[in-house]
User: Fold this.
Amino acid sequence: MELLNGFLNILNITTIFLIAGGVFVGIIFGAIPGLSAFTALALFLPITFGMTPINGISFLIAIYVGGLSGGLISAILLGIPGTPSSIATCFDGFPMTKRGEGGKALGIAILFSFLGGIFGAVALIFLGPMIAEFALRFGPYEYFAVILFALTTVSGLSSGNILKGLISCLLGISFSFIGIDRLSSYTRYTFGINNLAAGLNLIPLLIGVFAVSQIIEESSRKSNGLEQPKIQAIKGFGISFKEVLGQLKNFIPSSIIGLVIGILPGIGGNASNLMAYTYSKKRSKTPEKFGTGFVDGLVTSETANNATIGGALIILLTLGIPGDNATSMILAGFQIHGLTPGPLLFETNGELLYALFAAFIFANVCMLILEKLGLPIFTKILKIPTAFLLPVVIAFCYIGAFSANNRVFDIAVMLIFGVIGFILKYLQFPLAPLVVGFILSPLLEENIRRSLMRTNGELGPILKSPIAAVFLIATLLMVILSIRGEMRNDGKKDSV
Assistant:
């Protein structure tokens, strides 16, 4: 009944227009490499000052939904993730585009983005308070174990070579140490370069590793750059209802992974799509197909990163804790209107909360409609000759890198990481573990140091935490299974 009243509160021309407009803005920002939902929210947050609380916060949630989903467009069409949450979408989306199935890849990704978002919305409405209460049990011990498990799982993205995956991950961790230490405020590894004091920003690094390295690779190929893949026409979303049911084995676990990761502050969609992708690859009967244009990989990535939104909103609305940068902007939106998210909000302003639940569901519907209507436009991008398309992509890369902190220095960082990414790809090192290591390392370091401070340097008390123990055991099992799988594959190769 409360949800029905929530829908009635948003069923007016102004609110519907703002939600649809917010989704559209988010899609545009998400699709352009270097920009993101966070960028869009930062730019449009001041506009909500003169709106009613329902309109203003609904508008921000809509931007969040559109921004996280919009990254799939450039990930599939160009092989460049529009946002960090679309990294795993590149692995199978871009190969599908190369063989002429770009339209099908877009259709499937859009559909499962929507379904993942709806799963997150249902969890937010019915399980929010219960899940948030469980997340409250997480302290430094538990966060350390969870993040260590996340870093270990990305070794599964190393294409059969766990050593290269771990080296790439450790390289990302090393880059994250540059700058001022969060706990001691001590400057590390800056080599006297003042611009490095603030550390390396994720956006230039991400653009460099994925976009610039891809541009260098395309430019180095001996071709006229004008040959484009044929685009196959699709009906609906390019997938039958029977095939959708067949994907439940990937959809359900990916949704749960995305939801849980979204609830844990600081991790978010940046890691959930990669963790879900790794999980699906490990349990698949045909793991060798992942990364070759396999629909299962596409479904897994897009389901997880959109389910993450529901998880991030759960912890924001029930505990007042922002799960990532984007939800910190939505929290600011609450504060602009004199509201404080948390348990009391359910009692004092339940009408607003259920209106926001309805707005979240409607934003996902708008995302589905707008991206489906845009399919013909997106696929036409494939008809643009590479010689004309690459300069435009390069220009957006420069804009995206500069807009991160309005520093020319970040453009240099982008170019350097473009070369690093190209070299790693040439040597067949996976790029995803590098990015995940860079993203999660600060949280890992912060929580292990806090844990050791609490235990006076002893590791024993950490293992006494049941949650931490479970994740540490899972980490050990992941390493053992990865090594065992690699040895088995080597044995098959030798027998052939």
